[in-house]
């Protein structure tokens, strides 16, 4: 029997159980802002180390410090501290906390010492020696805005702050309750379903003229998939179709859960459903 192949999209990762997960990598701009914050923090720590060392040795000039001490401080601030921070926090530095990112492995797992050390070591070349130019150029031409250190370490920056869920659409309008019991609503194309759902959630805040125009346009796209067409205005019709599809999909999920429970004899998982305002 030939082995089946699975197509993995660019923004998906494949776990060890061969499950494709849809992930959201942090964008180039946010990665740059986070890196800038980390660089400023490192510069602050570096200056603090030099001033403290200068005070300890008796007020000598900064350029008179021992070269060994200078190199040790640079290695500590540029490599050791970033490695320790990313290892302890599992990929979260101060800059990444600020922009809502986290360094993870390409398979979605948490990073460890090896990945953090490789990233910090190559970061000296990418960020410090080239003033961030090399990291910026590489990140610009990679799908997940990964720099050279990420490529070698097998990591990328994952978005941790998911956008708020939109408010759900309301129930079927009362004047179409009888129609909803007998209506036949076929599966809508994804584009049409997405536009109808978005309109039903945001219509209350739209300008009246634009609201009516959008309702007419979306209703014209939805009507070929609905029978019979109810005697209602375009906005009420769209709201009713969106609510009816949601309620019927929720009922189908409940039936699947009940059927699975009857076959396995085990308690169902947490109930699935759509919130209703």
Question: Overview of this structure, please?
Answer:
The protein is mainly alpha-helical and 277 residues long. It has 2 domains: 12-159, no CATH class; 174-264, no CATH class. It has helices spanning 28-56, 67-89, 94-99, 113-129, 133-140, 148-153, 177-182, 190-202, 208-222, 234-264, and strands at residues 12-14, 20-22, 101-105, 155-159, 184-185, 226-227. Strands 1-2 form a two-stranded antiparallel ribbon. The protein has a two-stranded antiparallel sheet with strand order 3-4. It is a multi-pass membrane protein.
Q: How do you describe this structure in short?
A:
This protein has 277 residues and is mainly alpha-helical. Helix content is 56%, strand content 7%.
Number of domains: 2
The total count of helices amounts to 10
**End-to-end span in angstroms?**
50 Å
Q: On the 0-100 scale, what is the average pLDDT?
A: 80
Rg from alpha-carbon coordinates: 28 Å
Q: Strand fraction band?
A: 5-15%
- Along the chain, the helix and strand elements come as EEHHHEHHHEHEHHEH
In total, how many beta strands? 6
Largest sheet, strands/sense/barrel: 2 strands, antiparallel
Label the overall shape: elongated
User: How do the strands line up in the largest sheet?
Assistant: 1-2
Helix content: 55-70%
pLDDT < 50 stretches: 1-11, 14-20, 270-277
Structural class: mainly alpha
